[in-house]
Write a structure and sequence with these properties.
Blueprint lengths: L8 H7 L6 H6 L10 H14 L3 H10 L2 H22 L5 H16 L16 H13 L3 E7 L10 E10 L2 H7 L16 H16 L6 E6 L4 E8 L5 E6 L8 H10 L4 E5 L4 E3 L2 E5 L7
Helix pairs in contact: 3-8, 4-5, 5-8, 6-7
């Protein structure tokens, strides 16, 4: 059995002909060289935010960098998904599948990205939509990550199954659902801040998902006052908190409180800033998150 995912940013660089350039710098972890090519990395990252990782979309973009053709293919894929709901999903939960699918943008655009049933409809309850969510996650169209109740290893032992976030299967398709305009890509770095950074968080999740030997979770604490965007564990059982910053404001109070309390072996803050190791803190550019 082979599990296929949308193409990663690294694979996107390969498709763009950067196998001996930017892709090699990432693969071989030449962190000293990354700042020299930071602007080029960011340019390709903007392309990836629009194009995403669906192979047919990437192939069309590589051929002639036609934004419209890429979006047309994305819309075709989304239409095919919708048709598949009707063909394969149990008829009694089909309306709820559509409601969950249509709500993903609103869910990720919230400041607190925890999945809220009330966004679907007023008074909605978990038992009404559990099967619909399960169908979409089993199909690989959405991905669920759970909150943990305690930052301890193994993380899966402390998952709260009633509290979770849902992520899309592809960044480009999420942008297509939002009708993100290509012109936003050329307006400084505003694309990274769209929907309160939802696209950037989706991007980081999508790259982490390819590392199948880690558990991806998030950590709300102090009665919801603070929240870590992601917390993962490595092969040695170390817990690694990850803070995702999309905009210019790099302050991260939740991240700081967590690190002050728990003194993690490694803590990662990922943004558009350059690579910078700082004691146990690692400032990792968004375009290099796959090197983690």
């Amino acid at each position: 059995m082979l599990t296929l995912y949308p193409m990663s940013f690294y694979e996107f660089l390969l498709a763009m002909g950067e196998e001996n350039g930017l892709a090699r710098i990432l693969q071989e972890k030449h962190f000293d060289m990354m700042p020299l090519f930071a602007e080029k990395f960011k340019e390709y990252l903007k392309y990836y935010f629009y194009v995403g990782g669906m192979p047919e979309v990437v192939a069309a973009f590589v051929e002639n960098r036609d934004w419209k053709k890429s979006r047309d293919i994305q819309n075709k894929i989304l239409k095919n998904y919708r048709n598949d709901f009707s063909k394969h999903a149990p008829k009694d939960i089909l309306p709820r599948i559509n409601m969950v699918w249509d709500s993903i943008l609103a869910q990720l655009a919230k400041q607190n990205k925890k999945f809220i049933y009330g966004v679907l409809k007023e008074g909605a309850r978990a038992k009404e939509f559990e099967l619909a969510i399960q169908w979409l996650t089993d199909a690989g169209l959405l991905h669920k990550i759970y909150a943990i109740t305690k930052p301890a290893s193994p993380l899966v032992a402390y998952q709260d199954f009633s509290t979770f976030k849902l992520y899309h299967n592809d960044l480009g398709l999420l942008g297509a659902m939002s009708k993100l305009k290509a012109k936003i890509l050329v307006e400084s770095n505003t694309v990274f801040e769209e929907f309160k950074g939802a696209l950037t968080e989706q991007y980081v999740f999508q790259q982490l998902l390819l590392k199948e030997d880690i558990s991806i979770n998030y950590y709300p604490f102090d009665n919801g006052r603070y929240e870590l965007d992601f917390i993962i564990d490595n092969e040695e059982g170390d817990l690694i908190p990850i803070e995702v910053k999309a905009g210019k404001n790099l302050k991260a109070p939740s991240f700081k409180v967590y690190c002050d309390r728990h003194h993690p072996h490694t803590a990662v803050k990922t943004s558009l800033t350059n690579y910078k190791p700082e004691n146990r803190m690692l400032h990792l550019p968004l375009y290099a998150i796959n090197t983690l």
